[in-house]
Amino acid sequence: MSSSVPPNPILSTTPSSPLCPPAAPFLISEVPPSHLISSASTSSKPSTHVVSKSKPSSTDEEEIIKVEKTRVELETFTQCSSSLLWKLMMSFYDRKGVSSWSQGIVPHFITCNAFIGRAYAKVLAGFIEDLYDAKLTNERLTNSMKLNPEQPLYIIELGTGAGKFSFFMLKALNEMRETVRFPVEKIVYVMTDFTESNFNFWMTHPMLAPYVESGQLDFAIFDAVNDTKIDLHFAKKSISRENPTGNPICVVANYLFDTLCHDIFQVKEGDLKEGLISVGSSRKEEPDPLDPEIIKNFNNLYKYENIETNYYSDGEDADDGIHLERILAWYKDYFGNNDPSEIGASVLFPIGALRALKHLSAMSTGRAFVISGDKGNNNVDQFRGLMDPHIAVHGSFSLMVNYHAIGAYFTSRGGFALHNPQEEASLKVSCFVLPGVNNVGDEEGVAPFMGEGMERLDTERSRKFPRLRQAFNDYAESFGPNDFFIMQKSVKEDAPNPTLKSVVALLKLGDWDPDVFYKFRDTILNQVGTASSKLRNDLCRGIPRIWENYYQLDKEKDVAFEIGRFFYGIRDFAKALRYYTISSETIGEHHVTFHNMGLCFYSLHMPQDAAEHFQKSINLNANYAKAQSWLQKVQKELGTEKPKETDAEKVKGEKSDAGGETNSANNNNPDKELKVEEITEQVGEATVTSEDNTQAS
Ligand SMILES: C[S@@+](CC[C@H](N)C(=O)[O-])C[C@H]1O[C@@H](n2cnc3c(N)ncnc32)[C@H](O)[C@@H]1O
C-alpha cells in the first residue's frame, strides 16, 4: 500500500466521476460537532440552526462558521443504511422509470456500450474456462465449482435499468459460442430491477425479444437488498436458497452498488465510530417525504459515535457477523495503527451490496462469480481524512463504492477479489469469486485477516483461476471500460478535427458502438466522400454492425437516418433508402427523411418515386423549400408540372399548412436546416437532432 496520503475520494473535493458533480452548495455541513447541531426533531417544519465546518485534520482547529439556514428536518439522526436516503433513491427510480436513461437524467454511456458488454463477456469466459480445468488443485473446490452443461448457467444482472448493457453482453456471449466451452444456449441471462417500470420497458423492446424466444433471456423484479428469491418471469420458476442453481451463480452489477444502502464509519485516534445521518431539505416545506426533488435539496447533518467492531452481530446481518466484524476490525487496525499524520479515516461501508451478495450466493450454495463497475475505490489509502461522505447528486444520487470492503467480504468467506488498481478512473471494475467452500473457518475469528493476511489469501486463491486473471487483466485492467470511455471522449473533445482513420480505429475498438458512431457522424459524413477506397471499404464492412448493435432508448438519436446519410454519401442509394425507411418506421416520419429518400430515388433513376417522396416531405412541412424545388424539377422532367399557383392560392395554402401539424418526432428542431447547408451536396440532408445527450460522454 502507498504511504502517501491522497485526498479522500468519498469527500466532496474529488468530483472526477461523471456521477460525481461538484459538491452541491447546500452541503455546507462538514463534520459538524454534535453539540452544535440543533436538537433532532421529527417535525417537518423549517428550523434555523448553526453548523460548523471542520478541516480534515486532527488538529481540532475548528473554524466555526455560523450559518443561518432554513432546514426542514425529515428524519432525526439514524443509522445511514436505514435512513430515508434509500427510500428517496428508490422513489426516484420508481417514479422516473426509463426516462432516467432516455432523457439522459442518469449518466449511462460508460456502462452501456458495446465495448463494456464484450469486455464483461470475455472476463466471464475466462472464469468458465478455469472451471473446466482439472488443474484446480483443491479437490473440494473443483467439485463445488464444476460446471454441469445440462443445467442453466444463470447470469443475474442487478439494477439493470434500461437493459442496454444486458443486450450487449448477451450478444457478445452468443458471438463467442464457438470458443466458450460451456454451451451458450444453456446460459440464461436474467435482467432484474426492483421497479416494474423498467421491467415493462424490457417486455416491449424488440432487440430483447429474440433472446427471450431462444430461452437465453429472462426477466425478474428483484430488490437486490431485501429479496431472497428470484422469480423468473418466463421460465415460471424461482431461484432461492431452497431451490439453488445447479451451476455457480454469475452476477453483474453496474452503477448499482453506489445506489444501495451504505453505512458510515470513521476511525479517529484509534476509535471506531459510526456516522449517523439526519436527512433534511433546504426547501421551506416538504409535504411529500418521498418526493425525488428532495434529493436536489438535500441538507443532511451527521454525527459520530463510538462503536465496537461487532457492530453487525445482531439483526439482519447477524449471519454475516463474523465477516463484517473482520472487515471493521481490519479498518480499525489499519487506520488506528498506521496513521502517522493522525488524520483518521472515513470509510463508507456498502452494506446494501453485501446483503445482495449474501442473498445471491445463498441461491447457489455459497458459490458466486461477480463482476461490477461503479464509481468507487479499492485503495484504502484513499479513505484517509475525517469528513462526511460526499453525496453526488445527478438526478438521483450516489456514494462511492468501497470495493475494498466487498473484496474483504469475499476473502473472509473463502473467496477472492480482483481489482484494477488504476486510481484515476470514473468507473472501477472489480471481480469477485466465492467457491462455496470456506478455507478459513468462522472459528478462526479475526486474526488471519489482519494486516497483510487478507491480501495474501486473495493472491493465493486467485492463482487457481489463471484464465480469469488473464481475462480480467486484458479486458478490465490493461485497457478497460474506463479507458475506452476516456479515449472516445478525448477524440471528441480534445481533437477539433479528428481524421476519418482515427474515428474508424475508435469505432473498431468500441465494437461499432452506435453511440460512438452517432457522436462522430459529422466527421464520418464530411470525410467519407474523399476517403481512400480502402478506408471506405473498412467503414462499409463495419457500418451494418452499428445497426445490429443499436438498442433504441429514445427518439433523439436517429441512428438509422445517419447510416442512411452515410450510404448516400458513398452513392449507395439502395442501402441509403433501406436505412431511411427504417428511420421512418422506428423514429417516425420526417420531412427531411422523405426528402432524402426522394434524392435517392432520383439518383436511382426512379423519378416517379422521387416525386412521390418529395411530395410526402412537403405534406409534412409545406414550407420546406428544398423539397418544393426538387419536386418542381422532377415534375418538369416527368412532364407532370402543376400550373403555377396564383398569389391568392399561395396564401391560402400557407395558412392551411401552418395549421397542419405533423407527427414527426423532430419536426420543429431549428438546427436541422443549419446542419444541412454544410453537407447537403455530399451526403443528403441532415435531420435531427438535439445535441448528443449521452451522459458520461
Ligand atoms: C444508476 S442506475 C444503473 C442502471 C444500469 N445498471 C446502468 O449501468 O445504466 C441504478 C439502477 O438500480 C436500480 N435499483 C435501485 N435500487 C435497487 C434495489 N434495491 N434493487 C434492485 N435495483 C435497484 C434502479 O432502478 C436503477 O435501474
UniProtKB/TrEMBL annotation:
**UniProt superkingdom:** Eukaryota
| Stored Pfam families | Methyltransf_28
> Which InterPro entries did the record assign?
NDUFAF7 (IPR003788), NDUFAF7_sf (IPR038375), SAM-dependent_MTases_sf (IPR029063), TPR-like_helical_dom_sf (IPR011990), TPR_rpt (IPR019734)
Keyword entries, A-Z: Methyltransferase, Mitochondrion, Transferase
Positions of the UniProt region annotated as Disordered: 36-61, 639-676
- GO cellular component annotations of the record: mitochondrion
Chief subcellular location equals mitochondrion
A GO term for molecular function = protein-arginine omega-N symmetric methyltransferase activity
- Which EC number(s) does UniProt give? 2.1.1.320
Composition bias type Low complexity, residue spans: 38-47
Q: Where is the composition biased (Basic and acidic residues)?
A: 639-658
The catalysed reaction is:
L-arginyl-[protein] + 2 S-adenosyl-L-methionine = N(omega),N(omega)'-dimethyl-L-arginyl-[protein] + 2 S-adenosyl-L-homocysteine + 2 H(+)
Does the record carry Transferase as a key word?
yes
Which biological process, per GO, is one annotated for this protein? methylation
List where in the cell it is found: Mitochondrion
Q: Which family does it belong to?
A: Belongs to the NDUFAF7 family.
In Swiss-Prot or TrEMBL terms, this protein is called: type II protein arginine methyltransferase
Organism of derivation:
Triparma laevis f. longispina
